[in-house]
Structure formats: C-alpha cells, structure tokens
Amino acid sequence: MLSQQENETRQRFINEYLQDKTDKYDSRDVERLQKDDALAGCYLQWRLQNVDDALKMIDESFQWRKEFRVNDLTECSIPRWMFETGAVYLHGYDKEGNKLFWFKVKLHVKDAKTVVDKKRYVAFWLERYAKREPGMPLTVVFDMTDSGLSNIDMDFVKYIINCFKVYYPKFLSKMILYEMPWIMSAAWRIVKTWLGPEAISKLKFVGKNEVQEYIDAEHLPTHMGGTDTFKYSYPPLPDDDFQTPMCENGPIVSEDETESKEDAESESKDTLDSSQNEEQIKKSKKVTHLAECTLSVRGGQSSAPTS
Fold first, then answer.
1. Rg (CA), the chain
2. pLDDT tens per residue, the chain (307 residues)?
3. Does pTM surpass 0.85?
C-alpha cells in the first residue's frame, strides 16, 4: 500500500512537472513512476521523506535518463573498445551478498573526446544491473593499484557519485577505495564535499590488511591478497547468462576492424567468383566436347556405305 508521501509525490509530479513539458522526459520513465510502487519510495527514502526534495531529484534523474537515452542503452550502443579495456565491470560479491562494481583506476585516462562514451558506459552497467536485480544494492570498488595523477578525472568521479546520489537512489551499499595513493588525498577531500552525510559514511578507505573486512578472499584478486583468479576478457560480458553479445549484429567495432572484415569478405567473394568462373569454363568445355563428339558420331553414321 502506498504511503501518503508516495501518493503526493506521484500526483505533484504530474501537476507540477509534466504540464506542457511532456518532451522533457522519456515517457517510459514517467509511466514507470506511476506504476512502480517502489520507485517513488526509493526517492523519498533517499531524501528522508521530504517530498519537495524527492521531486527535484526525480526531475534531475529523469532528465539525465533522457539525455543519455538510458532506456535504449544496449551492448551494441557502446563502442567495443570500452568493453575491451576492462576498466569497469561487475564481478563477485561482498560479505553482505552485494554485487561488486569494479573500477580499475589505472586503466582510466582523462580524455575529453571519450568522456561522454565513458559516462554512458557506466550507465549501461548500472541500468543493466537494475533490470536484472531490481532493488539490490551494489558495492563499488575503486581499485587504485598502480594509479597516479594521470588517472585522476574529477568530473568523471563526480558523475559516478551522482549516479548513486541522484540517478539510482538507494543503490549504493558502500564505496571501497583500495590503496589510494597519498597524492590523491587532496582530490578525495573535494569528493567528500559532493556527498551527503549518509553517503560519506559509506566510504571505506582500505589497504590489503583491511579489505577482507568487507570482501572475502574468494572474491578478491590475488594482488589484493585474495584467491580469485578471474581475468577480465571480452566478449562475453562477465557474469552474463548470454554466451554471445546481446546485439543481433554483435558489438560496435572500430573502423579498422570493419575495413579488415570488409577486405576479408571481398577476398572471399573474389575467390568464390573465380572458383565459379573456372567451374563454368570447365562445364562449357565439357558441353562443347560432348557436342563435337556427337556431331562426329552422326557424321560418321551418315557417310557409312549402305548394303
């Protein structure tokens, strides 16, 4: 049964945010808010049952979902090279049974040209998990092993925090920062200012001696003192029931890969055409030879003496 605040949130969203602004959001998100009893409750819980704050959060979240076309994100809408880097993926569980969302910080390099793709890539993983495990929180692990200043991207970090603070409320179990270099301490002091009191309490700064307080050895890689020998590779996606890409035509490929594939197909076609031509010539010769033989026999018969 819906609470009074949840009913109020739904009704006020229609009255105050949808009037003459139907193109502001994806209609599928609006419909889900009206049908999914848990959704309004998640926003309210995260905003401590304050309806005004929850409405602002829903508005910001829905605008982001439309901008990034989150409802339409699929494996084949993300550049293949992003999957191949292994910088972000889901794998394993913490001690409370929450899925682990890994960020290999050393594999991230700040690049304005790819920042939008990277943000959509994170959204792809979050949305995919939300659909498969609705209502189940995640534990984020920032593995900072061998990372340095070149891997710091404050805009990207802020985006990740907003994903859990605004776009996916009640989704974050905890955020584990493993082996953070001292040179990054100042940056993370800035990050704390972006978090609310509840979110700050979810930050866990750990090293090899403390990480097993939150994650058992069987779900930790060997460089963290664990026994998990998992090695990321793509395709397929880790922990995926599908053994082939979900896109009918496979994931997006680079231009080089496309050209290579086209060259191979062209070469194959040329070989096939050549083979077919040779076969046709052989057949033609055979037909000609048979025709000549037939004519020769008939000629011999017509010139034979009669008795």
1. 31
2. 568 888 999 999 999 998 776 689 999 999 999 998 888 888 998 888 899 999 999 999 999 999 999 999 999 999 999 999 999 999 999 999 999 999 999 999 888 899 999 999 999 999 999 988 888 999 999 999 999 888 888 889 889 989 988 999 888 999 999 998 887 777 778 887 887 777 788 889 999 999 999 999 999 999 999 999 999 999 888 765 433 333 433 344 434 444 443 444 444 444 444 444 554 544 444 444 444 443 343 444 444 444 3
3. no
